[in-house]
# Entry
Amino acid sequence: MELTTRSNDAPKGAQTLLNGLSLVRLVADGLKEAPELQRATGLPRSTVHRLLQALKSEGYLRETPVGLGLGPTLIELGFGALSSNPLTTVAGQHLEGLAARVLDTVHLAVREYGAVLYLMKIPGQRGAEMRSRVGLRMPLTRTGIGKALLVDDDAAGWVERWRAEAPVDMTAASPAARKAGATAEGDFVARMNHYRKGGYSYDMEENEPGIRCVAAPVRDASGGIVAAISVSATAPYMPADRMRELLPLVQQVAAAISGEMGYRSAR
# Structure
């Protein structure tokens, strides 16, 4: 796992804070043991040990039967962040109504640090569970809700993001794989152009086998995309005909949330 750091230009005295935040992020990403954290950060063993002790004492991390995990302080702060986010406040009632109507899983997500970040999830009532959860980050180009967040980007931006997230077999060095990758890339751009014109996006089991979704962007007073919503279900409950039937409803709910966020359509 490659550690992304912004510490080169950090003010004097801030390095310890940034190192501690990096450890929290890596634990959130799945690292469980101090040696793994040391290798990922390149920090001295003693520094990692000292930072972990401080983070655990303040409740940011905790020991679990399977290693390090996020602590109760982060849960408290996370709920505080969600409750103070106007998006979740505005969208909540609309999404609850949508979920009750469709009986499928409903999501609200934003684009953060080049990924989808889920802010809300209302599980469906058909028994199937999917791996999405509040706080999880997922690829933009492989999820329906992520593609809805991307529809305002230009083709160059779509290609750059697709290449960063493309499956390994699409970016391998062999000529056959390169050819397949180019075809998949071109297909992705063509689909994104179609989605941009329609103001929606689909996930046709690209992110999770057997899971499909219909998504639409949410805009604010500036006209920019600030979030997206989606309805997701297993393929038997989401055939192509039903996806087309759901699309106007999903767009209607996204428009209602956008209106409360100050967006006014030019039409």
User: Anything to note?
Assistant: The first strand starts at residue 61 and ends at 64. Residues 154 and 164 are 16 Å apart (CA to CA). The beta strands are 61-64, 67-70, 105-112, 115-122, 137-138, 201-204, 211-219, 225-234. Residues 175-198 form the longest helix (24 residues).
